[in-house]
Design goal:
It contains seven helices and six strands. With 263 residues, it is an alpha/beta fold. It has a six-stranded parallel sheet with strand order 3-4-2-1-5-6, with helices on both faces. Strand 3, helix 4 and strand 4 form a beta-alpha-beta unit. It starts with 34 loop residues before the first strand and ends in a 12-residue tail after the last helix. Bound molecules: 3-methylbut-3-enyl trihydrogen diphosphate (2 copies) and magnesium ion. The site of one 3-methylbut-3-enyl trihydrogen diphosphate has 10 residues, from helix 1.
């Protein structure tokens, strides 16, 4: 994502610095979640319960993404952010990590045309330099060919960690202070927001985690300060559009107070 100057806001002016308009407007919606973020967990267990290798589960999980993206417009979801690989997932076996990297490459190649045709704008968040050059090139290409789209904003988190993102943002802020671009006396919450990978996205309204684990595993730490959470038992490869719709129906009944009191 291109650098946004510290005097710009995450929305509005920030868009003009992207190669094409992002359409990233956060419109508060009392009943519908405009931005849904998903921790797609449980692929390994799904495969193992079928006596298959973990990568079989990752392939089944990748197939689910298309259905979920397609369901977004009818559910009022404008932004969908999915956690595909964390900064901690490098701890897995070499076989699993390289299998996932090759899955990401193949996924981009096979989905590229469909995503363009279906009006999906794709962005990636996370620390790219650790990824292989071929994958980085494909990610850049997918971002660029979909950058005129605005029906659904799909953000894919690869080599993403919330703490890593905040550390990288602070490093960049420190550099800007050093070069005189940023006055430290002006730093506030919105300043940091503008240095994050997610700078052009609104905060998630709802974070869904599949597979029964009730933790956030370093996902969108800063951005989810006031998100609603859904921890559901369904394993990611079984997460259908119907299960998604059920999560959204429950969200509609949440009472979001943001620290205030409803009169
Ligand atoms: C989530 O599924 C996908 C990634 C982390 C890449 P897992 O691979 O974590 O599946 P479980 O949690 O082991 O079942
Ligand atoms: C979180 O799942 C990361 C992704 C879904 C990509 P993990 O399976 O890595 O999380 P932990 O290890 O159970 O916390
Ligand atoms: Mg897991």
């Amino acid at each position: 994502m291109p650098k946004i100057r510290p005097d710009q806001t995450p929305e509005g002016t920030a868009e003009s610095t992207e190669t094409c308009a992002s359409g990233a407007q956060s419109e508060p919606n009392a009943e519908r979640a405009t931005h849904v973020a998903v921790i797609m967990d449980g692929n390994g267990r799904w495969a193992q319960s079928r006596g298959k290798p973990r990568l079989f589960g990752h392939h089944a999980g990748a197939k689910r993404v298309k259905e979920i993206v397609r369901a977004c417009p009818d559910l009022g979801v404008k932004y969908l952010t999915i956690f595909a690989f964390s900064t901690e997932n490098w701890k897995r076996t070499q076989t699993e990590v390289s299998g996932l990297m090759s899955l990401f490459r193949r996924y981009i190649q096979s989905e590229l045309k469909g995503l363009v045709a279906e009006g999906v704008r794709v962005r990636f968040i996370g620390d790219r330099p650790r990824l292989d050059n071929k994958l980085i090139a494909l990610m850049d290409e997918l971002e660029s060919v979909t950058c005129e789209n605005s029906k659904v904003h799909l953000t894919i988190a690869i080599n993403y960690g919330g703490r890593d993102e905040v550390s990288r943002a602070i490093k960049e802020m420190a550099r800007d202070v050093k070069t005189g671009v940023l006055d430290p006396e002006t730093v506030d919450e919105t300043t940091l927001t503008r240095y994050l990978d997610t700078r052009v996205l609104p905060d998630p309204d709802l974070v869904i985690r599949t597979s029964g684990e009730a933790r956030i595993s370093n996902f969108l730490l800063w951005q989810s300060a006031y998100s609603e959470y859904e921890f559901i038992d369904t394993l990611w490869p079984d997460f259908t559009a119907e299960v998604f719709a059920d999560c959204m129906a429950r969200f509609a009944h949440r009472d979001r107070r943001f620290g205030g009191v409803k009169s």
